[in-house]
Design brief:
Blueprint lengths: L6 H4 L1 H4 L14 H21 L3 H25 L5
Helix pairs in contact: 3-4
Length: 83
């Protein structure tokens, strides 16, 4: 059956203000959840602005994450000589 235009407002699951996540551990750490959301939004923006494939945007986001971990975590934590 075809959905009505107001289906999204009348569906009870859409009125719920909590995420429907199969694994409840995803909501345990607010910082991790917010970081995950930030990377999702970053990925979506790359796709919209460059009109690239999902895989190309995924690679770009993963590369950015690796640079952040290397530059902002490992180098200050271990020092430049170790890294």
């Amino acid at each position: 059956p075809e959905a009505s235009a107001d289906w999204e407002f009348t569906n009870a699951s859409c009125r719920r203000r909590t995420a429907v996540v199969p694994d409840p551990r995803n909501d345990d750490n607010t910082v991790v959840a917010q970081l995950h959301l930030a990377f999702q939004l970053f990925h979506n923006r790359i796709v919209r602005q460059t009109n690239c494939s999902f895989e190309a945007a995924q690679y770009a986001v993963r590369h950015a994450y690796h640079r952040i971990v290397w530059r902002d975590l490992l180098v200050p934590l271990c020092g430049p000589d170790v890294t």
